[in-house]
Amino acid sequence: MGATGMQALVFDIGGTTTRAGLYDLGAARLLRTERAPTPSVSACSSESGRGLRDRLYDLLACLAARLGADAPGYIVVGFPGPVREGGTALRAPTLWGAERDPEPVAERVRAIWPGARIRVVNDLSAAGHGFLRHEHDDACIVTVSSGIGHKVFLDGKPAVGPSGRGGEIGHLRVDFSDEAPLCECGARGHLGALACGRAVPEQAVRLARRDPGAFARSSLAASVAGRATRVDSHLVARTFKMGDPWTVALVGVLAAPLGQALAGIHAAVGVERFVIMGGFAQALGAAYLALVGQAAAAGAWDLGQEWGRMLEFGEMGDEAGLIGAGRLAAREWGGAA
C-alpha cells in the first residue's frame, strides 16, 4: 500500500458497477481507481444468491489487486443496503433481489484482509461525507439510478437509527393499488419501483396504454418500433433532452412520487438542502430536477421554500462514493477530512 500507511482502500458497491480506489488520507484525494460490473441478480439471473455473494468478495479482491493494494491498512466499504453497526448488511435488493438473509460484510472483508481496520456503511452514508460543506452540515443525499436511496445527515452524521434501518426511502410504499409494480425486494408499490431507472419500462408501458395515440406520435415510439416494452432509461434520457412531449410526460410520472417523498422528509426533519446523484438523474439533467422540485412544492406546506434552490446535483460524478468513503476514512482514522 505504500510506506506512509496513510492510504485507504475504498469501495463503492453499486447494483450495476463496483468501484474501488486508493485514497490518500493526508492529501485528501483519490490516487487511483478501478471499476468492474457488479455480479448481481439482474446481471446473473441464473446464479444462486450464495454464489453471487461469494463472487462479490472475489471482485473486491480483484479490484484491490489491480490497484496494487495487497496489504491495506484501512478499508471503507460503501454497501447498497441498510447496514447495522459492526458491518452486517440487513438486505441488498439491488444485488441479491428478495433474499432476506443478513450478510456479514465486515467479517467477509476481514477474511480477505485480516490486518486492516475496516468500516462498512451504507453506500449513501459513505457518499454523503463527500457532499458535506463542513463538519456539522445538514443535508439529504439522494441517489436515483438503478434504485433509489437516501440518507439524511444531521450535524454531519447520517440519521439511520440504532439498527441501521433508517434512510431507505426507495422502499417506502407509495402505491397501494392492486396493480402496483413489483419492487426488486419482492414487495409492491415501493418508490424505487415507480421512480428509478429500472422503473422506466413498466411506467412507459402504463403511460402508453393510457394514451396509445400520444405514444405513437412520440419520438420515443419511433426509436422502439412502436413497442413500449422496449423503452429503457438511456432512450428516455435522450428523447427527454430533445423535448419530446410524451417523454417529458413519462419523466414527470417518474419524478412525481420522488418529489412528494422529499417533501415528506423536509416536513419531518426540516432539512433544506437535497443533493441528487445517480446515473439516471444525472443523465436526465436540470429539467428533471425542476420536475422533482415542482412535485415537492405541490406536496409540501408552502412556507416560502424555494425548491429550485433546495435541490442540487452532486457534482462529483461516478467517484462520489469513493471520495465520500475516503473522507469518512480520514474522519475515522486521521487525515484531512
From TrEMBL:
Highest taxon of the lineage: Bacteria
UniProt-listed Pfam families: ROK (PF00480)
Signal sequence region: none
Stored PANTHER family: N-ACETYLMANNOSAMINE KINASE (PTHR18964:SF169), ROK (REPRESSOR, ORF, KINASE) FAMILY (PTHR18964)
Record's protein name: ROK family protein
UniProt organism field: Methylobacterium currus
